[in-house]
Amino acid sequence: QMVSQGWKYFKENFYYFSHVQKTWYSAQQFCVSRNSQLTSVTSDSEQEFLYKTAGGLFYWIGLTKAGTDGDWYWVDETPFNKVQSDRFWIPGEPNNLGNNEHCANLKMSSLQSWNDAPCDHPFLFICKRRYIPSEP
Ligand code: 2F8
Ligand code: CA
C-alpha cells in the first residue's frame, strides 16, 4: 500500500523520494505529516541505496546543526557519529559557505555525496519511516 504511494523499501525502512522541492524545515514537516522524518544515514549500504535512487538529483536529508558549537545532528534522533560519517561528505564539505549552510543534502551519486547548503533553499527531499514486518 505504501509502495503504491511511491515509498521504497530498504532494510526495515520505507523511503519517500519527493517530486517537489521544499525548504529543509518544510520538508521535515511534510515527512512528519506522513509519520516519517527526513532520512538519517548510518551505513555504507544505506548511503549507497540513497545515492543510487537519487540518481544525481539533490535531496535534503535529515542532518542539521544545533547549538552554539554548530554540531551536526540527525532530526530523527539517531545519534550522529562524526567519525563514521566523515566519509560521506563531498571532499571540501561541509564548508558553511557564506556562514549560512546549516542543513545537509545528498548532492553526488557517490559514497561521498553530502553537501551543506542554506536551510531555506528549496530542494527535493527524502523521508524515512521504520517498518518491521510482523507475523500475521
Ligand atoms: O563548490 C561547492 C559549493 O557549491 C555551491 O555553492 C556555489 C553550494 N551551494 C548550494 O548548494 C546552495 C555550496 O554549498 C557548495 O559548498
Ligand atoms: Ca557547502
What does this 3D model show about the protein?
Helix content is 18%, strand content 28%. It is built from three helices and eight strands, in the order E-E-H-E-H-E-E-H-E-E-E. It has helices at 24-33, 44-54, 82-85, and strands at residues 7-10, 13-17, 37-38, 59-66, 71-74, 103-106, 114-117, 124-130. Strand 4 (59-66) and strand 5 (71-74) form a beta hairpin. It starts with 6 loop residues before the first strand and ends in a 6-residue tail after the last strand. The model has no long low-confidence stretch (mean pLDDT 97). The chain binds methyl 2-acetamido-2-deoxy-alpha-D-glucopyranoside and calcium ion. Calcium ion (CA) is lined by residues 93-95, 97, 101, 115-117.
What is the percentage of strand-forming residues? Answer: 25-35%
- Compute the average pLDDT: 97
Total strand segments? 8
SSE pattern, N- to C-terminal: EEHEHEEHEEE
Radius of gyration over C-alpha positions, nearest whole angstrom: 14 Å
Q: So how many helices?
A: 3
Note the main attributes of this structure.
single chain; 136 residues; alpha+beta; 8-stranded mixed beta sheet; 3 helices; 8 strands; 18% helix; globular; binds methyl 2-acetamido-2-deoxy-alpha-D-glucopyranoside; binds calcium ion
Provide a concise account of the structure shown.
The protein has 136 residues and is α+β, with helices and mostly antiparallel strands. The chain contains three helices and eight strands. The protein has helices at residues 24-33, 44-54, 82-85; strands at residues 7-10, 13-17, 37-38, 59-66, 71-74, 103-106, 114-117, 124-130.
